[in-house]
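Milestone M4 deliverable, item 7.
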Amino acid sequence: MTQSLITYSQLPLDLDRDRLPHHVAVIMDGNGRWAKHQGLPRIKGHQKGVDVLKDLLRCCQDWGISALTAYAFSTENWKRPQFEVDFLMGLFERVLQRELAEMIAENVRIRFVGNLDTLPQSLQDEISRSMDSTKDNSTIEFTVATNYGGQQEIVQATRSIAQKVKEGILEPEDIDEKLFENHLYTAGLVPPDLLIRTSGEMRLSNFLLWQMAYAEIYVTKTLWPDFDRREFHKALSSYQQRERRFGKISK
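Output delivered:
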């Protein structure tokens, strides 16, 4: 294992640095199933998943990828058992408290997107502190989607624009893709080039629906707690084998 980490601390030689995605998004699926396979409670899967995300963030820094967005908690996840929801809220808070100093030292800019107003107040406070403390950092943009839903995001953006039209601040003909993007939670963040989903599920699960318009999608059966740098290498290799035409035809 030690040798593997040393080998993969730098960009693998078979990857083209000039063709890496600028922004990678991940749907971190399979924590509960991983724990079940290990004979452990589901919360152990979530704890292991945090460690995997932390290493992926470092890997992106090591390999020169400038943005990582993780789907941490969806608007639908409130339907899970209350004990699990409470554990996740507490886990997010503890991770921020424990990791903030390190993220500041490593020049990580952290950002949270979603309906944050309904989260526990203590978690909101930690989120505000982490975003404020890292707002001037620039090595990598780390975005955490928490209480996030893509459909809800589009609805709130539409309401905001409609209100401005009603107030005479905007005219209907002012509305275009760029203006709409500026009213999303992710305003100012470049769209993902690559979406990775673990555990083999073939759906977006209400994640970044607008932003994924031209993202390449990579699905692996590997469960999130087992998604290491070798698995990330496979995802990037698949990405670099694709031709990104954005509606154009090949030359």
